[in-house]
Write a structure and sequence with these properties.
The chain folds into two domains: 163 residues, VC0802-like, CATH 3.30.2130.30; 210 residues, Rossmann fold. Helices cover 38% and strands 21% of the residues. The chain contains 14 helices and 14 strands. It has an eight-stranded mixed beta sheet with strand order 2-3-1-4-8-7-5-6. A six-stranded mixed beta sheet has the order 13-12-9-10-11-14. The chain is elongated. The relative contact order is 0.12.
């Protein structure tokens, strides 16, 4: 490479750049997240427009793969920095870089944030385009659909040269918008809902309802695996495991068959709201999609939601099943989600669940069981584990 050229990665913020007074908070959080994921094995500098990453020991491919798992990054760009802004030096280094690339058409894009630079953007494009044509054989300019875009950014202190960018996850850094409690089952929907909530900057804790002996240890391990997958985006997740057997069996024995699911979900919401409150979670997140099953009609959602005051966020509310499956595959959750281990929501499903439950009937049927005492015992005896993406064994929290 020519003199003065340094290989580095820079990041484009995307949505973070729309923030005003608190933009620095979002960018600093992103910086902290990157340092944590890359284990401080990089040098990071940033301003309001870009974040620059220079490896200490890790290779560029390894760093880029890790950056792909971090929310808040709009684009990842492998670039070359020139501290010398002389046009001849820029030309020399561009040709040196292009010798290693195969292409037949190109165009030049120039961004000139240094308005004091003596050559304007249009003239730079012409000069650099002409220089490339003169020094690289068998190529031509195509401004509409080029195989290669040669990008040049003239900044205050340096010049950036780059060609390709990699799409990041976007969204906000995890935790910048507070905490939420994810109702995590072993199905397809809830992990996708959790992923989408994290993309909006929400740090997750999760709650799982088990019902031994009706649900198996394999079902619990499946949920742990899904929590571990989410932790790869979130750094760690506290998973609250609730033994739901006593409540579920009382519902099954004492409440009319068509209302089993409605009452069961109302109990889960009550427990989730208490766990959320105790752990400073501002919302409950779940994977409900309108009309997908009987408990997800608008009337059912209203009857179930009425037992809590905490906001319930449903990221998948308006997604159809095929869209949800596609997202599940995109985040590598699908193969785990379809493993044949039943959870609380599927073991006692009636043939004809009510699709328009009445709140008054819910309250009447709930009076048949001592649910408040059972909820107290379920919460008192909960088991909480901390899951990180690096764990293979799950240890109880003290």
């Amino acid at each position: 490479m020519g003199d003065f050229m340094q290989k580095l990665i820079f990041l484009k913020y995307g949505e973070l750049s729309t923030k005003k007074d608190n933009r620095s908070f979002f960018i600093k959080t992103l910086n902290d997240d990157i340092k944590k994921v890359l284990e401080n094995d990089v040098e990071i500098n940033y301003d309001y427009g870009r974040m620059f990453i220079v490896p200490k020991n890790q290779d560029f491919d390894s760093i880029i793969n890790k950056l792909k798992t971090i929310f808040g990054i709009h684009e990842i760009v492998l670039a070359y920095k020139l501290d010398n802004k002389d046009l001849n030096i820029i030309k020399q280094n561009i040709i040196e870089l292009l010798k290693n690339k195969t292409f037949s058409t190109f165009k030049v894009e120039v961004k000139r944030s240094d308005k004091d630079y003596p050559i304007d953007g249009m003239q730079l494009r012409k000069d650099l385009g002409a220089h490339i044509l003169k020094n690289i054989s068998n190529i031509k300019v195509d401004v509409n659909n080029p195989e290669l875009v040669v990008n040049i950014e003239i900044r205050k202190k340096e010049v950036l040269l780059f060609f390709d960018s990699i799409k990041g996850l976007g969204g906000y850094p995890v935790g910048t918008l507070g905490k939420g409690l994810l109702m995590l089952s072993g199905g397809i929907d809830s992990p996708v809902a959790g992923y989408l909530a994290m993309k909006r900057g929400i740090k997750l804790e999760a709650i799982y309802f088990e019902s031994p002996p009706h649900t198996s240890e394999a079902a619990l391990n499946k949920v742990k695996s899904l929590a571990k997958l989410l932790a790869s985006y979130n750094s760690d997740i506290k998973l609250h495991i609730i033994n739901f057997t006593e409540i579920q069996e009382n519902i099954y024995k004492n409440i009319p068959n068509d209302y089993l699911i409605t009452i069961m979900r109302r109990m889960m919401y009550r427990i989730s709201a208490i766990i959320a409150s105790r752990n400073n979670c501002k919302i409950i997140v779940n994977g409900e999609s309108i009309g997908q099953v009987a408990s997800q009609t608008l009337t059912s959602m209203n009857a179930i939601n009425s037992v809590v005051n905490i906001p319930v966020i449903r990221p998948l509310a308006c997604f159809d099943k095929l869209e949800i499956i596609s997202l599940s595959k995109d985040i590598n959750a699908y193969e785990t989600s379809i493993l044949p281990y039943e959870d609380c929501c599927t073991i006692f499903v009636p043939k004809h669940p009510v699709i328009n439950p009445e709140k008054s009937k819910c309250e009447e049927y709930e009076s048949l069981i001592p649910y408040e005492d059972m909820i107290y015992r379920a919460i008192k005896n909960k088991n909480t584990i901390k899951i990180t993406s690096k764990e293979t064994n799950y240890s109880d929290l003290l």
